[in-house]
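Recall that a protein's primary structure is simply its ordered list of amino acids. Everything else, from secondary elements to tertiary packing, is in principle encoded there. The following example makes that idea concrete.
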Amino acid sequence: MKYSTANDLPVILKEFLNHIYVVKNKSSLTIDEYALDLKMFLRFLKRYKGLVPSSEEFDKIDITDVDIDFLKNVTLMDAYAFLSYCKNERNNDSAARARKVTSIRMFYKYLTVQRMFFKENPMLELETPKLKKSQPKYLTLDESLKLLGSVDGKYKERDYCILVLFLNCGLRLSELVSINYNDIRDNNTITITGKGNKQRTIYLNDACMDAIKNYMAVRPKDGLKDKDKDALFLSSRLQRISPKTVQHIVYEYLDKAGLGDRGFSAHKLRHTAATLMYQHGHVDVLVLKDILGHENLGTTEIYTHIVDEQLRKASEANPLAEVKASKVNKNLSKK
């Protein structure tokens, strides 16, 4: 957590970040996101309230002097002014602004509940921007087979294994690169550490086990650094493979499979796995939630919406879809 000892943060913010890291068990990435959001919020407030010259560069505004007296003078309307600034001046979309709302509300909840600086939380009614619901992009079954069939080259066993795990297990990119080979058990299961350091067990099917077996037969064993010797997937430099390298691998084979212009990515392969399990495997949505490591059921239910949308389109494609009673009666009366 790089912000825990940062010199440009006020003490009260450092305390909050340490609290949610230790007590709430949030990941380092999440902590860094909270820190970035709240740094921007506090810098905006100092400029908005005229406490720094308007000519001062935004990212250099000093917030180390922010204390509880300063925070007690922040109103709900100040927070909405900040969100307006994020939309109009920084071109943040609704998702980015929603994350900032979450950061602010979590911060003030800490100040109110844990530290008891406020009798009532002034940000309790801060509303989240309405998010546009979009269907996740995913590959069809035929496209997934085409992608797997495109794998070749010097590292084909490794690359094929990466794609197979993405498409069968619905792993996040960060989860895949963090796998150690000893995470794989004799009972064909693998222990995955997901968001918030939460662990879950995933059962590996025959395709996964076969791909892992073939890869392990050629995986380098010599010349590895101690910190990377247990990593399942290794780069050409004999180091734990990086997320950037995996993304490059995925893009390379998407291009070879003729799917490179569709906006697919490693994360879209996670969507693909979930969709295929729900559509073809008839996996219950609660089971799917556990497989994917979702915290909330609502996140998983988007895959049920995909099927609902397909059913709607299938119904509309029926040749009788446009035939109405008035039209039928009119045609019959002509006979």
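The longest helix spans residues 28-48. Strands lie at 189-193, 199-203.
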